[in-house]
């Protein structure tokens, strides 16, 4: 079966990735070097189709092309195949022993690329500039978002929030402890894309028996509550899937405790979802944690700040769209320069590596 998620994204804190943690928890990694998303995706997709019948396969998507893969993880085999451009300039720590590399560059027609050199350099520079502009707009949006949080925090009853969180923790774990060390993985719930924010909440929780949909407002304790549940799970030996916010990666949006058949997540915009199954429930922190009526008392100020936030995130989204357009043009040149026969050989090499 497939597990779909993101490990990297353009956020208000810059381009932020969780690949280092993934790699450190695997036995083997195969990097694909010299390729780009539209070139690497078809190969990775073939691997997914081959192995999803018998294994759980982690499908890691690219936030600029959210229908295309940038990595595939097979947890049972403790391995991953990763587009190396997405992990930064990380050097191979244990070449051949734990890490292997396939270089796509050998399959390009140099003469064809040389004819387009100036164009490629220009487009690459434009992409770089648009990334920085997107980050700047997200940073501005975060400032307005934090101003909204400050309003609600004034009304947050911390004692009540702590007590209700403790009640929820006791309900989740009861008296259960596992005699093992907890395994924790960090991923993104969703991401900002050229088409706006998207998420994989329903895909990730489709086989989870119990789902808790957290409702509330910014600054009403959703992420703090999730962090406390994570800490408790780790202490009790439960494995935890942590899903960070694609806008602010320091904030948590969802945790999944598969050993307990439980997912609990922020179900407010931009990843707003409503209960669909009999075991789904709403947990409204605004009703439980907040004293007074800030929605009414600060209505105009909140609407103004949210409007400014939306303007900034829309500008950031437009920048991501500009990146996508230019990156597609850039990759088209490389695809036209690539020997298709060479790619078939690469897929065979990947399969041989997996089974070696």
From TrEMBL:
InterPro entries tied to this protein: P-loop_NTPase
Lineage: superkingdom: Bacteria
Protein name: Nucleotide kinase
Organism: Filobacillus milosensis
Species lineage: Bacteria, Bacillati, Bacillota, Bacilli, Bacillales
């Amino acid at each position: 079966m497939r597990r779909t998620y993101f490990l990297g994204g353009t956020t208000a804190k810059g381009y932020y990735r969780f690949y280092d943690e993934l790699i450190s928890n695997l036995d083997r990694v195969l990097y694909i070097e010299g390729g780009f998303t539209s070139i690497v995706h078809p190969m990775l997709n073939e691997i997914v189709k081959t192995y999803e019948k018998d294994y759980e396969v982690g499908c890691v998507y690219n936030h600029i092309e959210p229908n295309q893969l940038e990595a595939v993880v097979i947890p049972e085999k403790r391995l991953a195949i990763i587009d190396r451009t997405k992990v930064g300039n990380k050097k191979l720590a244990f070449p051949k022993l734990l890490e292997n590399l396939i270089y796509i560059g050998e399959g390009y027609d140099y003469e064809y690329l040389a004819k387009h050199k100036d164009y490629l350099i220009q487009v690459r520079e434009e992409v770089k500039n648009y990334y920085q502009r997107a980050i700047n707009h997200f940073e501005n949006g975060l400032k307005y978002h934090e101003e909204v949080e400050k309003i609600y925090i004034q009304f947050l009853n911390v004692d009540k929030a702590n007590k209700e969180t403790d009640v929820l923790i006791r309900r989740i774990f009861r008296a259960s402890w596992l005699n093992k060390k907890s395994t924790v993985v960090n991923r993104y719930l969703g991401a900002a894309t050229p088409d706006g924010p998207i998420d994989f909440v329903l895909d990730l929780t489709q086989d989870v028996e119990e789902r808790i949909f957290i409702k509330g407002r910014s600054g009403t304790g959703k992420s703090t509550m999730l962090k406390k549940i994570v800490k408790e799970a780790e202490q009790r030996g439960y494995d935890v899937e942590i899903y960070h916010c694609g806008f602010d990666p320091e904030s948590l949006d969802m945790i999944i405790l598969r050993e307990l058949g439980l997912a609990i997540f922020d179900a407010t915009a931009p990843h707003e979802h409503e209960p669909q199954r009999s075991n789904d429930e709403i947990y409204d922190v605004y009703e439980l944690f907040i004293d007074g009526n800030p929605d009414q008392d600060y209505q105009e100020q909140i609407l103004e700040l949210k409007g400014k936030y939306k303007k900034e995130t829309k500008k950031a989204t437009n920048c991501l769209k500009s990146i996508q357009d230019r990156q597609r043009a850039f990759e088209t040149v490389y695809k036209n320069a690539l020997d298709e026969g060479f790619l078939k050989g690469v897929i065979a090499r990947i399969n041989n590596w997996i089974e070696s």
